[in-house]
Amino acid sequence: MNVCKLSGIAAALTLLVSGAQANQVWNWSFGSEAGQFVTDGSSPVAGQYQVLDFSVTASAFAALGSLSGGQYTMGAFANSVAAPYFLTWDGSAVTDWQHSGLNSFHWLVYSQKNSNNKYFFGWNTGNVNQIDAAGLWNGSNANPLAAGALNVSAVPEPASYALLLAGLLAVGRIARRRSA
Question: Which residues does the UniProt record annotate as the domain Ice-binding protein C-terminal (predicted)?
Answer without folding.
Answer: 154-178
